[in-house]
Amino acid sequence: MTIAQSRQPQEPGTGGPGSAAGPDEFVELLPQTRRALLHRLAVGQSEGRAPSMVGAVIRGGRTVWTSARGAVDGEAPHDAVQYRIGSLTKTFVAVLVLRLRDEGLLRLEDPLGRHLDGTPVPDATIAQLLAHSSGLTAEPRGPWWERTAGELRPSPADLFGERPQRLPAGRRHHYSNPGYALLGALVERLRGDTPWDEVLHREVLEPLGMRRTTPRPQPPFADGWAVHPWADVLLPEPAEDTGLMGPAGQLWSTTADLCRWSAFLLRGDDRVLSMESLAEMRVAAVPPEGAWDAAYGLGLQLVRREGRLLAGHLGSMPGYLAALWTDAEEDVAAVVLTNCTSGPVVAAVAADLIALVAEHEPRIPEDWRPRAEMPERALLELTGPWYWGANPHVLRLRAGRGLELAPISGAGRASRFRAAEDGTWTGLDGYYAGETLRVVRDADGAVSHLDLGTFVFTRGPYEPSEAVPGGVDPWGWRV
Question: Which CATH architecture is the domain 6-360 placed in?
Fold first, then answer.
């Protein structure tokens, strides 16, 4: 089998806002880092007994490493060879749904039945479908849908049996492929009955320059194989058009295109979806209790691995495995594609590629620069120490009119806040996500205290003020 040489850094071509990076981030990876990456890919292909495997690393919005092992049609696969990406398709459908939300055509809290007639779960919300918490069955009825033609399920009613809902909606995570078929139908309905893949091409793939991501294979592409478990022989796998189940796993793509997709998932592109909406997708929608290693956001799988939070998705179809992970903190992503049904642990390979870059070459922080414009004096006056009872916090001014409130100790409830038009702020994350932060003023117009979802923050610890619920002992602090 042929070894493909590691390639030079490439521009993913997102071309939109958020794609710029500092010059240090574009420096070519060190030779020892590149060799470590090649070694991990080679071990994954060899131990996984994959006919071919391609990998790529994206850092600072650019492709900084690609390589391949094995062969497709007798040659080392290059970054324009298509592989089927399976459930990575779901990340594309989720972005389409978030676009509809951002345009005001739906709310994530809306029941599906408000927008789509004849669904088996009309009361399940769109957010629950995105996060696989609608309780829908994991697979459509009928024969193995990934290896049979979509014509066997010609209408939405053909996707579900007598018990389409196996669990109460919203109670727990239960992966559902038919759920994403319904989300694809939702996109089609709200885009004037335009097929979901046409909407995807027009609104996402074309702006991002992803010309080799298609619903059906286009040469050159890698044939899909099953590898015999006890002998080094191959069996071809069928590559069916899955019809209505397409939004769950139909797409074909390349490492070059998925590098563009990874850069977009990390940095956003206002022509497609904002950084804020992408960050929302990376939050666990049905948070596990206590410590957790795996969860699901809005169309993105989440895993904790060696202290890192990775967001992305895995994909599998007969003859193909795919993995795409992003690490927002390190601004690094990795893609791994292979053309066999089982064997290679592509999720681990992709995660290890990120870890190798982060360990060998930690991210260089961007230059600190002062603000370009002086903020309002009233905002500056809000910054500094605040006390919830006797617990000291600090309020910092962030980009625009954003705020961040955190305990000075570093442990406890911390949240970022987005300014609203009515002069309040809305929590973006942490305990106070969705809660309202208000500045309360006295009769003279001076700031009295902060009200955060009924929690009162004063300028001193338990200041003698009527603002503190229950009042403050008139004798004050004592020994």
Answer: 3-Layer(aba) Sandwich (3.40)
In order, the DSSP letters of 125-193 are: BHHHHHTT-S-B-SS-SSS-GGGS-GGGS-SGGGG--S--B-S-TTSS----HHHHHHHHHHHHHHTTS
3-4/320-327 β-pairing: unpaired
In the 8-state DSSP scheme, what is residue 389? T
Under 8 Å CB-to-CB from 374, ≥6 apart: which residues?
none
Per-position DSSP letters for 47-102, written without gaps between them: HHT-SEEEEEEEETTEEEEEEEEE-BTTB---TT-BEE-GGGHHHHHHHHHHHHHH
Alpha-carbon gap, residue 59 to 333, rounded angstroms = 7
Tokens 């300014």 correspond to 419
Q: What is the pLDDT along the chain (479 residues), one digit of tens a residue?
A: 333 334 444 443 333 433 444 444 446 899 999 999 999 999 999 999 999 999 999 999 999 999 999 999 999 999 999 999 999 999 999 999 999 999 999 999 999 999 998 888 889 999 999 999 998 988 888 788 888 887 788 788 788 877 888 888 888 889 999 999 999 999 999 999 999 999 999 999 999 999 999 999 999 999 999 999 999 999 999 998 988 999 999 999 999 999 999 999 999 999 999 998 999 999 888 766 556 789 999 999 999 998 899 999 999 999 999 999 999 999 999 999 999 999 999 999 999 999 999 999 999 888 989 988 999 999 999 999 999 999 999 999 998 899 999 999 988 899 999 999 999 999 988 889 889 999 999 888 899 999 999 999 999 999 877 788 888 888 888 88
Nearest-angstrom CA–CA distance, 479 and 461: 16
pTM of the model as a whole: 0.85
Q: Give the C-alpha separation, 222 to 25, whole Å.
A: 32
* Domain coordinates in residue numbering, the chain: 6-360, 377-457
In b/e form, how buried is each residue of 317-343, taking b as 16+ CB within 10 angstroms? Answer: bbbbbbbbbbbbebbbbbbbbbbbbeb
Measured CA to CA, the distance from residue 84 to residue 254 in angstroms comes to: 9
Q: Are 253 and 95 in contact (CB under 8 A)?
A: no
